[in-house]
Amino acid sequence: LEEMQEDFITSAVNYSKVDRELAKRIWDEWVIPLSGYAFNKSHSLLYSMTSLNTAYLKAYYKNEFLVSNLIAETQSNSPTAKDNILKIRHELRKNGVTIYSPHINYSVTNYRLVPGNKLLTGFSSLHGIKEPAAKDIMSKRPFSSFEDFLFRTDSSKVRSPTIQAMAACGALDIFGFTRKSMFLYCSDLRKKYKIWMNKYPN
Question: What's the start-to-end Cα distance of the chain, in Å?
């Protein structure tokens, strides 16, 4: 405040048409006393409003509230994030929500509630799936087969670790291959399939 005093008084004189003595009185009698409690008062008011809104959402939109917290924890680097995710998922199950693994043709980046009290896991919850890969997948689906998925996705974005993470969690189960085979042979299959498709496009 000491650094701001002269600027305040000069600006008051220049822009508010008051004399320097009145500007100094305003500073001494209003600004200085206000600084003693305005910060704490404003924060307590904002925290109260946040608490009220949070309680309302948790009471009347509990599942949506929990999913929002789940998304936030998924994006957090906090050392407690993993435990918090498990707690929130447990709370959702207690509330009657069925949690489904990611699905190659239906999942989006984040967790998503769907009709019927179902929660579809998002791609961001999987270790090894970056945003460019998720965007590339979502822009090119639906995929009709594992070969279709391998051929049409961008190999510079949807790399082998991404495919392996999706295979391991069940996101590719609809293609009819075992998770193990897709995990182990995705890189080799992609190379061979692209050579075949380029050689025999029809």
Answer: 75
- Helix (H), strand (E) at residue 118: strand 118-120
Contact 109, 120 (CB under 8 A): no
Structure tokens at 90: 């447990």
**pTM for this prediction:** 0.68
3-state secondary structure of 81: helix
CA dihedral 197, 199, 201, 202 (to 10 degrees): -110
User: Which is nearest to 152 in space by CA: 105, 112, 117, 111?
Assistant: 105
108 vs 124: CA distance, rounded Å: 8
What's the DSSP call for residue 102? -
pLDDT tens, residue by residue, 156-173:
999 999 999 999 999 999
pLDDT tens-digit map of 4-41: 999 999 999 999 889 999 999 999 999 888 887 777 88
